[in-house]
Amino acid sequence: MSNTFSEHLEEPMALVGLVRVSTSRQETARQHEVLDPICVKVFEEKVSGTLKVADRPALRAALDYMRPGDMLTVGEADRLGRNLLEGLIVLNDLFEQGVAVKILDGIAAGEHTERSLILDLALALAEDRRRDIARKTRNGLASAARAGRKGGRPRVVDDDKRRAILARRAEGQSLREIARGLRVSLAVVHGEVKADENSTEPQEPGR
């Protein structure tokens, strides 16, 4: 950017931009196209949005750069986190630190200096969406179980190899010996043995 730090000091109020992507492979050009023309400086980070504010160097640098009256500026609320819900949670954390935030687009678009009815509604909608996704996932797994299927990743070993693992374990072989003898990973052997132990644990009385 052509703007200098001294120019920033002369501004009564300035927008300080934040561009965030989860990995270095993701493009940031579109976010820069929106923020660069209106911000005195734009900071870029390529980290998971789930990190706390204190653990995000670029976000911390942007906050340190800001002067009283400045506003941290992002394209959408989800750029503050991994998704909309986490972005709104980070937004609330910023309010608690006295940071003003400008969001250009999306459900929480606007200039915000504190929590408001609109943001509370957005946070409630995001939380409701999270619960809806979780509910649909549970219903899908239950439906698959009724149909004789199980959710999650497919089993690495078939029933014959699983029986061989458990038989060798019953003979006293170590997990490493079993893995080497059956040409499977140690993690697979450990998982099958652990699953068998859990399935055969005696239940407490009355349960």
- The strands making up the biggest β-sheet line up spatially as 2-1-3-4-5
N/C terminus separation = 67 Å
Tally of helical runs? 8
What's the helix-strand series? HEHEHEHEEHHHH
On the 0 to 100 scale, the average pLDDT is 77
Given the helix and strand composition, which structural class is it? alpha/beta
Oligomer kind: single chain
Low-confidence stretches: 1-7, 203-207
CA radius of gyration is 26 Å
**Largest beta sheet, briefly?**
5 strands, mixed
Q: Percent of residues in beta strands?
A: 5-15%
Task: Please name the defining characteristics of this protein.
48% helix; alpha/beta; elongated; 8 helices; disordered N terminus; five-stranded mixed β-sheet; 12% strand; disordered C terminus; 207 residues
Short description:
With 207 residues, this protein is of the alpha/beta class.
